[in-house]
Amino acid sequence: MKINAVAFLILFSFLIFTKGAYSQNFDVYHNLNDVLNVASENKIKVKEWRIYYRTIMENVEDDDLNRMVTTIKSDDSFTWSEEGNDIHHKTIKGVKETNQEEILFTFSVIKNGKLSDVSLSYQVTGDNRLGLNKIKDLYIPVQFKKVNPYITVVGKKGAQKLNQLEGNLLDSFSASYVEGVSERDFISVSALSSKFDERIQTKTGKSFNVQIGLRKSKSNDVQITMGTPIITTEY
What we know:
This protein is an alpha+beta fold. Helices cover 22% and strands 43% of the residues. The protein contains four helices and 14 strands. The chain has helices at residues 5-17, 26-41, 62-73, 162-172; strands spanning 22-23, 45-60, 79-84, 89-97, 101-112, 115-126, 140-141, 150-157, 175-182, 186-193, 200-201, 207-208, 210-216, 222-228.
């Protein structure tokens, strides 16, 4: 999703300076809950779950960019760091950890002549210590509320035939196979599930909203990555 710099400044200022500017997103809760339930049904030990938002602003003027950076770094609930430089590419990262999850705010700037292209992302990461019922307590900054999130769950399972596990997961997702890659120790699948509303089109025009990656380890355990509408990590 793309937004202009002025709208972003208004939204971000509201986020930083207005008490209670975080807002629950119940679709996120239900979607993550559904993916975690699929893991539970298939006896997958969850290692990590991740909710990821991203928005892009193009051709931002320096004055607006400087105001954004100042506003972002004024939130002292995050620990901020910077990499790169103002000439080519700079990344500003903010990290906030609780006893339940880690939140990563990333502000990446690429110079485009006298203007800049800006990418803003917000990522919440948790592990299997967080009970399913507590996921409803997650709060998302208001400027991401209209941005579709990406949900990824990573886990592992004892030895099982990959094609059998693939079929079981598709059944649990109430999903139909769309396309994929199958190798001896690796399967990657894109599928269409009735559980989720958002859809993405393949290059051939087919719709999907679930991705599953299965990789057999040397010990014959299966490393499992599941995501909706797409997986946002390497697998």
